[in-house]
Amino acid sequence: MALRLAVVFPGQGTVGGEISGEIQEAVRRVIGNGEVPYQLSVFASSVETFHKLKESGVEPDVVAGHSLGEYAAAYAAGALGLEDGVRLVAERDRLMTEVSHRNPGGMTAIIGAGAREVVDAVDVAEGVVVAANYNTPRQTVISGQEEVMEDVAGRVGGKKRKLDVAGAFHSPLIQEAAVSMEAFVAEVPLRDPEIPMISGMDGAVLARADDVRLALRDQMLSPVRWVAVVERLAALGVEEIVEAGGGTLVRMLRDFKDVKMRGRAAKEVLG
Question: Residues near 258 by Cβ (< 8 Å), separated by ≥ 6?
Fold first, then answer.
């Protein structure tokens, strides 16, 4: 049976919005009344938007998330409890912020060059740099030490855009954080997804709790292969993608010339 409607969740680079009700209560139970960490604000806002979409009649057949967005996707799939999700994302933010202060770096999007060209430039670079996000056939994000990224960017064509993120995510510079995060993911209770979830690491269909646990455990260091996610959604028969976010993931669909899926941001659906 074709899975007609997908809901997808954005990651870092998105701005968190207002939260209320049970989501706000879950956040306060975990962190108290202090300032909500950035990653947690994105997760909570994504969950709030998902609830509003469901109230408006949007019932996804399949879900996926980009990097941080995988936590909201796991919640939307019924695999991860709300308060457990809040706790995991709060720890993720803390760990990644701390390690980014010790091992500074950044991320740069390269737009208009093929992934192969970018990977070849990364392979010959001296220092810490990786291809971190394969976002579209013509957009690859590199992550690592600033001066090494500049060297890679100078070797390839296309436009370069430095991302407004706190560190070199999905690179060896945050390995300490990834190792610490493993312990938190190992302890949290997870359920088999009620609807399929697509892994951001390779586009695999996650159908069991153990699959989701492995995906959440490994995703901090692994590249985000969003191209594989979109191709998997198309292969499953998805006709429409609704983004529980500002529209970044939906806009990426324009780069997929062979994929015929309608894309709408939540604000278009909620009107």
Answer: none
